[in-house]
Design a protein that fits this description.
9 strands, about 200 residues, Aminopeptidase, alpha+beta
């Protein structure tokens, strides 16, 4: 039996994100390379203008959660894959994201409570771009805490563009904006030209 090709290399992933593309795997591609996609329209979350809905503020009790960065990256990726109904985040694609993480290009924003990982998200940074790939939660409000924690972190680190690819009713509550592919590419070029660090100072 012929083994499946490995996931994309670090260089392939970085070149794709810099051009506005992102990977999505699936069982139908088991014998092929992981394909990349362009979304048009594209959805971004504001960074400086990020808003927290009142209901989210009420649900996030002060001191309930602790936000950490890059303490359990592989566990976050695995939890995101398990938590989803579809299968785009395959084992070989997780391996590619872990390779990106080891080279400082992929990061997790984690939500901890009482020493346990209860939620989080992961994504890729290129210059001043951060693109959220997937998220999960195991307790109520942990997903909201991951989004809010990411917003606060991106502000602190001076990021310019927060890409979430596709809009949902939930992300629209936080001010998600749907833009054309051309507008996204314009913002993307400006963002990746700005050197930023996701972890500097931490």
């Amino acid at each position: 039996m012929r083994s499946a090709p490995p996931g994309p290399t670090v260089q392939e992933m970085l070149e794709a994100y810099a051009s506005g593309a992102f990977p999505m795997d699936g069982p139908e591609y088991a014998d092929d390379r992981v394909p990349f996609y362009l979304a048009d329209p594209r959805t971004v979350l504001p960074i400086s203008g990020f808003r927290i809905p009142k209901s989210v503020r009420r649900g996030m009790t002060a001191g309930q959660f602790t936000i950490k960065i890059n303490q359990a990256f592989a566990e976050v990726c695995t939890a995101c894959a398990i938590d989803r109904d579809d299968t785009w985040l395959s084992a070989r694609l997780i391996d590619s994201y872990i390779d990106l993480h080891r080279q400082g290009h992929a990061h997790s924003v984690e939500v901890w409570r009482d020493g346990a990982l209860v939620g989080g998200l992961f994504g890729v940074s290129v210059g001043g771009l951060f693109t959220s790939e997937s998220m999960f939660h195991r307790v109520t409000d942990a997903g909201n805490a991951a989004i809010v924690g990411t917003a606060q972190h991106l502000v602190a680190q001076g990021f310019a563009l927060w890409d979430i690819q596709m809009s949902t009713a939930h992300t629209r509550r936080f001010g998600a904006e749907v833009i054309s592919h051309d507008e996204y590419r314009t913002r993307l070029r400006a963002a990746i030209a700005a050197p930023r660090s996701f972890t500097r100072g931490r």
